[in-house]
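Bug report (template v2)

What were you trying to do?
Predict the complex of my protein with (2S,4R)-5-hydroxyleucine.

What happened?
Run completed; filing so the output is reviewed.

Input:
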Amino acid sequence: MKLTEETVAQYGRDGFVLVPEVFSHAELKALRAALAEDLTARGPHQVLEDDDVTMRAVYASHARHPVFGGLVSSRRLLGPAMQLVDQDLYVHQFKINTKRPFGGESWAWHQDYPVWRDADRMPAPRAVNAAVFMDDVTEFNGPVVFLRGSHRLGSEASSRRRGDQAEEHIDPHDYALSTADLTKLAEVHEMTSPKGPAGTVVFFHPEIVHGSAPNISPFPRDLMIVTYNASSNAPRPSGEPRPEYLVGRDTKPLVPHSHPLEAAATSMAWAGS
Ligand code: HL5
Ligand code: SIN
Ligand code: MN
């Protein structure tokens, strides 16, 4: 149940890697049902679009719903994440970006780590995102676009530039790269958007430049992102930390286990390779 050496090297070069067929159809059904249940819990952990009605993102479902609670220590996510960071890990952040059909909004070009460095005082980019496709991701429904290899530049390009789109959750809009910087970077770093059927997982580096376009297709694009951080790299806030739904407090190393969903797994194609 391991990424190959070649895959780990590819992650080092590109800043992301796509792993196909991690979750089966039956498991995705369970995940979608869990999301529907979790969406009934109202609170500040739900981020709305500009219309103040449509769901844009929901945070910390793993803290409320047992299906997501178990999933974060699944071998299939935590195993590769531990290989990629080469450290013991815990969940820094859990979110599902729910990009609705016919207009789900874009996410501005940004890097994640500068946000967590500034807002949470996370010491280093010793973390990895595991993005689980809860829907098929195509060129039509607003896939995440990466600048390949841009994580190797570090975080110099990003600092808070604009306003206050959000108070607790920090919208990438507030950390967006300038058009001049993005233009320069895109000359050197190819734009690429990993796509695939629901159940695909993309692991990506906290310093890779990424963003996504609106979803004008008739299909949803719900993307679950678990950010694993090294236990040795827990934030050291100087004052009041941001709310727990944004910044995980339990920094004890997670132990990979076979999630109950795993019992129903039929497709483990990547695991043996
Ligand atoms: N919304 C996140 C936070 O921590 C930051 C963004 O994609 C992650 C940049 O508030
Ligand atoms: C998106 O959901 O398209 C953006 C993902 C991210 O910023 O991590
Ligand atoms: Mn991001």
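What did the reviewer find?
The longest strand covers residues 89-99. The pocket of manganese (II) ion (ligand 3) is lined by residues 110, 112, 172, 210 (CB under 6 Å).
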